[in-house]
Amino acid sequence: MKKLVIPFFYLFHLSLHAQEDVKVFSEKKDNGYVLYGNNLAFCPISLTLEVDLINLSLTPSEQKLFVIPARTEKYKIGELIIINKSEASKYSFRYLFTLGDVTKRDYDSAYNYDLPFQKGKQYMLFQGYNGRLSHQNENALDFIMPEGSEVVAARDGIIIKVVQNNNESCMQEECKKYNNYLSVYHLDGTFADYVHLRMNGAKFKVGDKVRKGELIAYSGNTGWSSGPHLHFACSLPSFEKRPTIKTKFKINEGSNSIYLEEKKSYLKVY
Asked: Which domains does the chain have, with CATH numbers?
């Protein structure tokens, strides 16, 4: 019987914060196919793969989760080997991916973050970790800031996402789709999100490296917001909603680091 190779298809779902720069594809070889992945994002991505095979075997067969480094093309995922060349072969695959390395959990929990505003400024923390308004089960911080206040990087990193085309807000969760925000990837695998920025308020683009203390955006009142403020949260990669983590901040002259408390004002002198 003449070998029949039926064209493959693939389906994919983008999880939270994922970008459209990941691709899984195949190349034919003498005894089957090689599966590759492209990751054009500026941080690693985690990818799970499911295959349906007829007269083909996947090597390595036991691996289901793949971590593709940042800015990597033709990362080898595996090989599809024809079992019997005299019979028809068919395959399809589906994949799910998310930004970051989901296998990495040994992040730097002792890191001391800078307050996300300029030296000499003082702002009140209106809502803290697990706040009763919109931070239930979420380790996020809301600083009351007038629109147009300067937002600075709390830690070194690389910009992986910028949304700044919105100019709407409301007090209902449905307005989350109007959030302007900037996401930064840190060296230890964590992310920081700076949210509710003013329209066109970002100072950097995706792929830019930022230094701690550098002006990165201007605060606003966009998205799910009851008034002008900066929402700041650090998180770990996940295929579901990214789990947020508590972070310590340097206060006053910078010699002391604490977990910030709700309804207190913090002055940055460093």
From this structure: 9-99 (2.60.40), 112-267 (2.70.70.10)
